[in-house]
Amino acid sequence: MARKNTHFFCKDCGHEELRWAGKCPGCGAWNSFAEMKITATSAKKGSRGFKSQTRDSGLAGFANKTAAAWPEAVGPDGKLRPVPLSKISSAETNRLPVEPAEVARVLGGGLVEGSVVMLGGEPGVGKSTLLTGLALWWERQGIRVVYVAGEESPAQIRMRAERLGFKPDQEDGFSILPEVHLETLLDALHTELQNHLLGDDTKTIIIADSIQTLHSEHIDSYPGSPTQIKYCGGVLADFARRSGCPVFLVGHVTKSGDLAGPKLLEHMVDTVLYFEGSGGGPIRMVRAVKNRFGTTGELAVMEMRGDGLFPVDQAGVLFLSGRRGKEPGSAVCAVKNGSRTFLVEVQALVSPSRYGTPQRVVQGVDSKRVALLAAILEKRAGLDLGGCDVFVKVAGGGRIDDPGADLAIMAALASSLREKPVPLETLVLGEVGLTGEVRGVSDLEARLREAGRHGFRRVVMADPNPGGKLSARIKGVKMQLITVTSVEEAVALAVHPGAFDQARQEG
Length: 507
Hints:
Helices cover 29% and strands 24% of the residues. By secondary structure, the chain is α/β, with parallel strands linked by helices. The protein folds into 3 domains: 4-40; 42-312, P-loop containing nucleotide triphosphate hydrolases (Rossmann fold, 3-Layer(aba) Sandwich), CATH 3.40.50.300; 318-506, Ribosomal Protein S5, domain 2. A 9-stranded mixed sheet has the order 8-7-9-10-6-11-12-13-14, sandwiched between helices. It starts with a strand and ends with a strand. 40% of the residues are buried.
């Protein structure tokens, strides 16, 4: 007789417990645990079914494809054997092209064969639009795409494709597979690939939209539950690596903005992309939070139009659009996102509190980080912020994680408190320590070049070579470089530039 084990899973983060708990130890959510009954015999059956579909039939059906990817992996008897490292081709040589180039850069230069990419985002942000546009482009390049429709009907997908430029009288487009049952889906994918193996070197890409809709008969829980997501994601990841077909998994986000069941899937996939909006506007950002084949933190900036997503021209100054720069409480810094440099405006509003407890409202920056910088301002620069409401925002819907923006945040706070604007063409750049010292930032030259191209002529920053002279390469940047060592000095230079120009001007 089948023996059932009862486990409890957090619906927000997927944390597992043997007993019910009011508060999840993983994410801190209250009343988020759901009871799941796992049948031991079903799990064994599922494991057997998994092996039979991905190993037995998979190696028999994909022998030619596996041998093409790993020449020494499959022996004459069709069994796997270890492969010397020198015989394995590099992932850099097995990348499929991606267009637009913004998305290709976030993926590390292209789509690696056999990789698994997780794309998450809020409902309606444009995940399906992005993947539909990519699928149409891949088909036009001769790369086969199978779109697994779990949330939409094929007619809805075709309607979106036509809006993105699909012409049914001139092209066939990608294939659609409307199936959410995992075992049936695998059989269909195996059949599809086997029909194109002999004499055909065409690559195939699988898009599963979405992973929350898939379910397996071997798991005793509802679709979208942590156990279903973990099992289905693991099976598709194994399928991708054995067949060499890249797989895209579309994921939902929780109320906290994380991927549903993130810890269950982030370790299984190769790349995790977050598709973010911009406060309801047309700007969309694709951010890589994990990438085994590229740089983590890369950011693609795109614009949503009626006929699809398009790269944004002059994305480096996107967050400066509409900036006037004449009012107090604003400072500009240059931040790094992967290999890209963006000029970002930080806005601050400091006003006396009308209530007993001052407010701290922050958008686009970690609130604890702002509280830390405000405390440093009070302690090291003598600014009284304790009885004031503090509001900090990154203009344009951006988000700042770069420590090089510390000094700009502090300059914006000081500017608002003193009612003295930071000069329009001044860039404020530097990391701030707890003792009030100002430290340098990484990749300084790239930041200065980007700022110089967009009209900035003056930089308040940390000395990149304390005790010596500025390097000749940095001197080549046609900007007024003013170096500081302390927060007090930096705030004075940024808000009252005339007082220290003669003492601190270099270059």
